[in-house]
Amino acid sequence: MIKGPSITDMVLAIDCVTYDLCFLMGLLSILFKIGFLMVAALALALWAYVLDVYVAKYLEAREVGD
Amino acid sequence: MVFLFPELNIFEEIALIIGIILTLIGVFCDVIGSIGMVRFPNFFVRLHAATVGTIGGAVYPLFGVTLMSLALNYLGVIRYFIATGAFLTAIAIVLTAPVGSHALARAAHRSKTVPVEPKVCDFLREDERLIEE
């Protein structure tokens, strides 16, 4: 995740770790009886999608706009 | 019928067993995806292993977490909260993860930052060359 061969490999590794962390948060919320961990998991999944789209747009157009 | 969990009724027991099976499928797909991420030689092949680890390793276990939290009745009212959150997270990952990986692959191929090195043929590059001529 730190030193991929290119920048897209790093983004891909961050995506995989984030989605698996969502699932781990679900199991921990069952184990510890804390309901609010699932809200954090939903925010984390959407954050990974935003990272994907922004990196793709920067690589293709060399600017980060709206 | 032998009851494995005697404090639950039959529907909760079926949901709990299906949730545990989905979680074990997720563990298997995660191991396969991580082996592929290390061993594959190319970015575009590595994307396939990452998608196996995403859909098989995060979406199926989140549906399993939904069924498990609906089945375990010692959680009280919190179990409806956990089930709704896990279901919404699974739907969000199903909708957004293929879009993100497709955008990443398209940007990496068009901006030429990743070499398509061990390849058989690259029809997209040949088509771009034909359009330029």
Describe this structure in words.
With 66 residues, chain A is mostly helical. Chain A has one domain (7-53). Chain A has two helices and no strands. The longest helix of chain A is centred in the N-terminal third of the chain and has 26 residues, at 7-32. Chain A starts with 6 loop residues before the first helix and ends in a 5-residue tail after the last helix. The mean pLDDT of chain A is 83. By secondary structure, chain B is mostly helical. Chain B has four helices and no strands. The model of chain B has no long low-confidence stretch (mean pLDDT 83). Chain B starts with 9 loop residues before the first helix and ends with a helix. Chain B has one domain (10-132). Chain B is elongated, with a radius of gyration of 21 Å. In chain B, helix 1 packs antiparallel against helix 2 (43-71) and helix 2 packs antiparallel against helix 3. Chain A binds chain B through residues 5-9, 11-13, 15-16, 19-20, 22-23, 26-27, 29-30, 33-35, 37-39, 41-42, 45-46, 48-49, 52-53, 55-57, 59-60, and chain B through 23, 26, 30, 33, 37, 43, 46-47, 50, 53-54, 57-58, 61-62, 65, 68-69, 72, 75-76, 78, 81-82, 84-86, 88-89, 92-93, 96-97, 99-101, 103-104, 106-108, 110-111, 113-114.
Q: Give a short account of the largest sheet of chain B.
A: none
Number of domains of chain A: 1
Compute the CA-based radius of gyration of chain A.
Answer: 15 Å
- Any low-confidence stretches of chain A, pLDDT <50, length ≥5? none
Portion in helices of chain B: over 70%
Number of helices of chain A: 2
Number of strands of chain A: 0
- Low-confidence blocks of residues of chain B: none
Counting structural domains of chain B, the number is: 1
Helices and strands of chain A, in order, run as HH
Question: What percentage of amino acids of chain B are in beta strands?
Answer: under 5%
Assembly context of the chains = heterodimer
Q: Give the DSSP E fraction of chain A (strand runs of 2 or more residues).
A: under 5%
- The computed structural class of chain A is mainly alpha
Distance between the termini of chain B: 72 Å
Q: From the helix content, strand content and strand pairing of chain B, which structural class follows?
A: mainly alpha
